[in-house]
Amino acid sequence: MSFVAISSDGSTVAADGNVPRGVKSGGTGFWTFPAGDYLRSADDRTLSISPDFRYQATEADVLELQTSRAVVRASRQRATYTQAAFDPAGENVALVCSPSVDRPDRGQIIVLRIADGLVAASFGSRHTTALAFHPDGRILASGHWNNVTLWDSRRGVKLALLFHGGAHETGSGLSRDGRYVYGLGFSRDGKLLAAGTDDGELQIWDVATRKLLHSLNIGGGDVSNPAFSPDGKLLAAGTYGDGTVSLVDASSGKILCQIKVSMYGCGSVAFSPDGQYLLTPSNGGQIGPRRFDRGGSVRVFRIEN
What we know:
Helix content is 0%, strand content 45%.
């Protein structure tokens, strides 16, 4: 139980894990928010869901959620998908294509137009461990060993490399300093980018200046895709190793609180569109009406001003 997301209108929550008794368990369950009434489940493990909850990216397909119709299949690319991110408008999806299970360290980023399933751009060849679209829908961030790369997703042009931890470019390529970047997330205004590494480090970058503003260790191993609150004041991130969620002041980089939410890792977090709630994965129990805060597949925390 590691994935959670909320629709852009705040009406629906998606999470992997438990579904009500008597319902065939799928890869991802859907509930109303905030009541917590179960809607349905999808069979495959979710990599990403579009903000409007119309489309779901899995390791094998990009699907319409309501009909389960495949917009495009990985078999058409002769690959499997390992990472996915939808642009804010839900018109394009960026995917990391791994050519085979034998070579997961090699993969190309492709950007697909959802309307026709055609490739709009393809670029990169390094092992990619995270993807996130900028709010402008054009800039795409990708996470790798020791850096974050910013791309023009329409042209496949590299815009910048963000290094930290002594990483640097050499005549023969990138140095091996640093750690893998396993999570990425932009603030709603696009001014900040948060990156999480595989050793519990959470970084906050200024997108315009490409400068690192804060670097803090939140522990717990791989840091999931961080999420900024709608006003950009708070930053939340989960960790896979210890199933903990951390809440951070985005301006100062100070950790405000840390809470264990799952025995099985916290792979993503989400703020409600109004910024009043933080949603995380959780284990134990089943979701029932108005029971988000009692465990189940989703844990909901009220944000205090």
